[in-house]
Amino acid sequence: MGVAEHKKLLSDIGVDVDRHAQMMSMGLESYEAQFKSQNNRPKGMEYFDWFMSEIQGQRIAEINKLRAEKKPAVGTFCIFVPEEIIVGAGGACFGLCGGSPATIADAETELPRNICPLIKSAHGFKLQKTCAYTQSSDFIYGETTCEAKKKTWEILNKHHPVHVMNIPHMKREKDLKMWQEEIVEFKEHIEEVAGKKLSLDEMIEGTKIINEKRKAMQRLDSLRGMNPDVIPISGKDALFINQMGFLDDPRRYTQKVNELCDELEKRIEENNSVFEKDTPRLMVLGTPIAPPNWKLHTAVEGSGGAIINEESCIGHRYYKDNVDLDSVETEEDLMKQLMQRYSAVDCACFTPNTPRIDKILKMYEDRKADGVIYYTLSFCHTYNVESHLVTEALEVAGIPCLVIESDYSPEDAGQIKTRVEAFLESISFKKKAKNFKNKD
Hints:
55% helix, alpha/beta
């Protein structure tokens, strides 16, 4: 159907329809050029192509149908939101628009210039009223993972209801106890929106749904990156699938990802790779990559490289852990298991954060990668500062690493491509030298 068929709904929820239509047209055009132009794409990508066409059309209608039934709709920018509780209440949890430079000028009327572009982009979408997801949310979930976000929530709350969860920056016993209390308070807030108490069975069901979603994403991660001879899907397509995991209905999304994975398994059996043999295999580390920010993957895979994994909130950091339900008998048991699952997230906001470095080194070895790109958004101080510790560990391990700091502007796309090309050339030279030495 597309966005045009939902014009009345968009207007009813307060979207600036004309401006929204212009932005959607640009986004779809960019998607067509960067994604559909790829060769040998899996047939299973047809669903995700369709979802992109309905990303702010049919999906928005589905969310607002839930709201009409008093089911909660929660917008978020962070993977610390306990989405299991929202889904258990029959509601929808979804990521908000925040990857475009087009809204940043509006945001800078209220926010400083020198803070994270994701925060400014998202805030600008609210000021412009051009993100239908923001307009569809009963409230926005905020968290205290960085200083800029903490203060932005106070300003954003003037324009839209915000519920802030205090995420501790250490993982001591007293910190984890407080975190569990925060999850309980979040559950109570969801009950206020829904107008009813949530049963333990409902929350367990919501947890099972999200567990299955993450299992499907884990399966995709393994198929795209764990086979050294065949890469059955491009990193760019896999990135988009991960991004859509924060927007789509979780049951439908899980089904479609598993269907795609069935196809990818057959591709591996048939030696059907989307990249030539010996293409450098790269992991991307660092900050989340929100749509439509696809320029890094476009630069890498347009320069002779392949991205086989994202160690980020939009990737491995989100889906690597599930909630253990085996020992859950009471609501308190479930709250504790939710806390333990979310406290396993290795966000750079934590100190110390050595498990993240250990994980990166293991992921690199398991995937037989050839190098990594540490990608950070400008003014993302948590990941920028932690990059020193990560790259130090990579150097000790002899792992090639390229550090890229960027924002959402397209102006540095050429510079990034040049740096990526040089990095890939150095990797290829080292591989050839190693092979030559081994022959001797």
